[in-house]
Design a protein that fits this description.
The chain is of the alpha+beta class. The protein has a single domain (2-66), classed as Alpha-Beta Plaits (2-Layer Sandwich). The chain has 2 helices and 3 strands. Residues 1-66 form the DUF2007 domain. Pfam families: DUF2007 (PF09413).
């Protein structure tokens, strides 16, 4: 197995893991048990996403696409306070 992504926290690791899983890449999220040591350890950088070596290249490409994606801010309401149709 190979570390494919070093997350800031366990939540980010699971988001990335879910994205990879949805594309057919099996993952393992490590670092769950280190959460309790926050205070003794740095609060960030202990959660990692692992993939099998044979899926590493695909996972790296998917992560690159994910990290380069643009954020689209959809309005929750228009100027009159109404939700957009659709």
């Amino acid at each position: 197995m190979k570390i494919i992504f070093r997350a800031n926290d366990i939540l980010e690791a699971h988001i990335v893991s879910g994205m990879l899983n949805s594309q057919g890449v099996d993952t393992y999220v490590g670092g769950h048990y280190l959460q309790g040591a926050v205070g003794d350890l740095a609060a960030m950088g202990f959660a990692n996403v692992f993939v099998d070596d044979e899926h590493a290249e695909l996972a790296e490409q998917l992560l690159q696409d994910y990290q380069q994606a643009e954020f689209i801010d959809f309005p929750l309401a228009d100027e009159e306070g109404l939700a957009p149709a659709g």
